[in-house]
Automatic annotation (TrEMBL):
A molecular function GO annotation: RNA binding
Protein name as it appears in the record: Ribosomal RNA small subunit methyltransferase A
Cellular compartment(s): Cytoplasm
Organism, as annotated: Pseudoduganella lurida
Role description: Specifically dimethylates two adjacent adenosines (A1518 and A1519) in the loop of a conserved hairpin near the 3'-end of 16S rRNA in the 30S particle. May play a critical role in biogenesis of 30S subunits.
Keyword annotations: Cytoplasm, Methyltransferase, RNA-binding, rRNA processing, S-adenosyl-L-methionine, Transferase
Pfam family membership, one: RrnaAD
Residues that coordinate or bind S-adenosyl-L-methionine: N12, L14, G39, E60, D84, N106
Signal peptide start and end residues: none
Amino acid sequence: MKHVARKRFGQNFLHDDQVLADIIAAIAPAPGDTMVEIGPGLAAMTDLLLKSLPHMHVVELDRDLVARLEKRFPAERLTVHAGDALKFDFGTLPVPEGRKLRVVGNLPYNISSPLLFHLATFAPQVEDQHFMLQKEVVERMVAEPGTKAYGRLSVMLQWRYRMALMFIVPPEAFDPPPKVESAIVRMIPIAAPLACDEATLSAVVQKAFSQRRKVIRNCLAGMFTEQQILDAGIDPGTRPETVSMESYVTLANSLRERGGA
């Protein structure tokens, strides 16, 4: 019986063989890897990954798909974790001494940002991540200061990861086809991110980008004086999208030192 894609789960199943082959080539799975796939769906990518891996993990929310996966793959090849990836503790997955987790997936576009922030909490335990996401989201993730796409997502993720847009995937590669283009992103955790309290950095960045059309002096009013912004090496008359991730870290650290956020 054919599985009908469920809108509430953000399901769009990848079926293009060439795109699948390109993704597997980008991931380059190796026998010693501990791999976890988020949202395996109909297992198009799972099948190809298991050609190189003796075993892997998947996290799937749809109970019908969980049943299909458990029926299709023996437990010694595939461990199925039934549940919401937004709540899943990726730190509980067993990884050999000296190795790290590799994470892949065609992420549901309706929860992509919260899921990326959830996964960021496990960054020290992760070797790399390869995800299919809405192209617009990937462009925001990798955007440089001074560009229209640069914003909160850019700063917060670039603080933790080195990232690259690998290639674009057209809507017709999926069933049903989404209304947007997709893209593959590679995310490699930075071994030693710039020292900073994450909650403070998040508060500063969120306030800075809450009024993009204003200059940063006005955006951060009440949190920083003009002199404190100058002391961080930032022109108070500049707009928030021109300020580098490193400068936001400097601001966050100065706020933390003053006992703020």
